[in-house]
Amino acid sequence: MVLPEYQTSLLNKVDGSSTISIGEVKVICSVTGPIEAKPRQELPTQCAIEVNIRPEVGVGSTREKNMEDKLRVVLNGTINKFQYPRQLIQVHLHIISKSQATENNLKDLHACINGAYLALIDANISLLSSFLSTYAVINDDRLIFNPTSEQIQSSISHHLVCFDIKSGRADELLFVDSVGEFTEGELMTVLDQSIEEIESMNKIVRKTITEKVSRDYIWKY
């Protein structure tokens, strides 16, 4: 198992930022907004959400566009869009180091989802609920969360699960994506155990957020 590392408030020229490291994967996320939307982006009753994911080097390809679409699904279900009518929220992610698994991008997307959540919190964007994702593989009939690179390479199926979180408990399933060979029963097991994993992760993330709030609101005389 590889434990994630989180950090917020890294960049000072954006409204919110975060970095997340999960094994060899490292992602930096920045959030700008709410800002004035361009006429073609403006929505009369809610904000528009712009998502941009950049690879390690060069410009984005269909791989990054696919990840952007999936991340946008999660953000559309969790950002309180109606609080910011006719405005724009920009979420930019740069994958500094990507997963060594070439057959899918689920581990990278897992880092992007959780990095975006922390950056939105850092930017004080209103959310309908908290949310976190977890990544697991099935290897030799064992379900492994936060697997190592070696475990990923030898696994027969890969699963990304994202839940919203209310009152510290995983509530509604926001997004699930699976690659490989697996049965319906194995998928149900992944979903059930993901609830416990996400609730455990939430306790760690809350500590990071608490430390951020303490830094932001400390009184100095």
From TrEMBL:
InterPro entries: ExoRNase_PH_dom1, ExoRNase_PH_dom2_sf, PNPase/RNase_PH_dom_sf, Ribosomal_Su5_D2-typ_SF, RNase_PH. The keyword Ribosomal protein does not apply. It is found in: Nucleus. One of its GO terms (molecular function) is RNA binding. GO terms for cellular component: cytoplasmic exosome (RNase complex); nuclear exosome (RNase complex); nucleolus. Residues 6-125 form the Exoribonuclease phosphorolytic domain. Pfam families: RNase_PH. The keyword Protein biosynthesis does not apply. Belongs to the RNase PH family. PANTHER family: EXOSOME COMPLEX COMPONENT (PTHR11953), EXOSOME COMPLEX COMPONENT RRP46 (PTHR11953:SF1). This is Protein involved in rRNA processing.
